[in-house]
Amino acid sequence: MSSLFQHVAITAGVTVRVSVNFMPEQSRVGAGRWFWVYHIRIENGRDETIQLKTRHWRISDSNGMVNLVDGEGVVGETPVLQPGQTHDYVSGCELTTNMGAMEGHYTFTHADGTLFEVAIPHFTLAAPAEQEG
């Protein structure tokens, strides 16, 4: 998987970087299933400790179907980030079309417990032409 982050959003001193890769070996194109893995790096550029509490995703496919996903933390974790720290995780997305997109936001808590949202940049899910089925 590429370590090059193709998509970046910065909100209130917190940077979210995303790298996405199509996974042909995990896809079942003949059955109408395409699978991508995305790597996210969250960087705390603030001068306070913050904690990721929830995630909100808007996942769309090329047929116009939209799936909203809300949940606690990321991949079962609610990481605490000291100033200057980063948190990396990898997750995946399966669609029934060969193209789509994801975007959303994380909700973090400030040191005093108040909440703030951090944008997750919009990124495209696109299978290479030879994988379009």
Short descriptors:
ApaG_sf; 9 strands; 5-stranded antiparallel beta sheet; mainly beta; ApaG_domain; elongated; Co2+/Mg2+ efflux protein ApaG
Please explain how this structure is put together.
With 133 residues, this protein is mostly beta strands. The chain has one domain: ApaG domain (Immunoglobulin-like, Sandwich). 0% of the residues lie in helices and 59% in strands. It contains no helices and nine strands. It has strands at residues 7-11, 14-22, 34-44, 50-61, 66-72, 80-81, 86-95, 99-109, 115-126. The strands form two sheets. Strands 4, 5, 6, 8 and 9 form a five-stranded antiparallel sheet that branches. The protein has a four-stranded antiparallel sheet with strand order 1-2-3-7, with no helix packed on it. A hairpin with a 4-residue loop joins strand 4 (50-61) and strand 5. The model has no long low-confidence stretch (mean pLDDT 94).
The share of residues in helices is under 10%
Under the CATH scheme, the architecture is Sandwich
Category by helix and strand content: mainly beta
Radius of gyration: 16 Å
Under CATH at level 1, the class stands as: Mainly Beta
Count of separate DSSP helical elements: 0
Let me know the number of strands: 9
| Low-confidence segments | none
Largest sheet: 5 strands, antiparallel
Identify the overall geometry: elongated
Straight-line distance between termini: 23 Å
Q: Predict the CATH topology.
A: Immunoglobulin-like
CATH superfamily: ApaG domain
Mean pLDDT metric: 94
Beta-strand fraction estimate:
over 45%
Number of structural units classed as domains: 1
Order of helices and strands: EEEEEEEEE
Protein name: Co2+/Mg2+ efflux protein ApaG
InterPro entries: ApaG_domain, ApaG_sf
